[in-house]
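Propose amino acids for all 192 sites.
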């Protein structure tokens, strides 16, 4: 089985962020490649036969394979696959969060929302005749929609990284206590 590779970073543009389907697809594919298949990725690091095949090794099922992963292979996986993938997703989420908090002069629904808002200010509401007439659900600006998506995806990212790191820590001896500490150490050693 070949080792998984880190996800390629997309070209970061406001259009990429505002296309929520593409943004979600990128995050989903990146997570499925590395995090969702972490057990398979770690199993691929196991060297099954270091000194030739031992026929007696098949007599008993080996259920505790956590010590079988070479620490160098684990570190290589974390440094070259896991952390770069996490960093790419962090970069995308941080960039898109910046887009979501910036003014959006190119918002295609801006004029429509302004027109609806002006119309609603002029509207006369008689709740006796129509109790639902006071309800108004303004359209959400695409920056607000993007901000909500980023907030949700960051929560998902926290959960996925904690689960993935639990597996890595269990299978690779010497892993720091938290994924945050490990990722920050990697960033200090590997960032440009």
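Proposal:
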């Amino acid at each position: 089985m070949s080792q998984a590779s880190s996800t390629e970073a997309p070209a970061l543009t406001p259009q990429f962020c505002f296309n929520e389907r593409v943004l979600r697809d990128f995050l989903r594919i990146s997570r499925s490649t590395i995090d969702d298949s972490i057990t398979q990725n770690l199993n691929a690091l196991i060297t099954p036969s270091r000194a030739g095949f031992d026929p007696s090794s098949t007599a008993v099922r080996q259920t505790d394979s956590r010590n079988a992963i070479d620490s160098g292979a684990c570190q290589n996986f974390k440094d070259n696959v896991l952390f770069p993938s996490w960093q790419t997703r962090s970069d995308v989420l941080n960039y898109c969060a910046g887009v979501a908090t910036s003014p959006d002069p190119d918002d295609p629904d801006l004029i429509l929302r302004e027109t609806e808002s002006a119309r609603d200010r002029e509207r006369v509401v008689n709740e006796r005749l129509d109790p639902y007439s006071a309800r108004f659900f303004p359209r959400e600006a695409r920056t607000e929609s993007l901000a909500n998506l980023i907030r949700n995806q960051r929560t998902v990212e926290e959960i996925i990284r904690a689960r993935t790191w639990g597996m890595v820590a269990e299978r690779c001896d010497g892993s720091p206590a938290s994924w945050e500490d490990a990722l920050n150490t990697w960033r200090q050693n590997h960032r440009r």
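The chain is about 55% helix and 0% strand. The mean pLDDT is 78.
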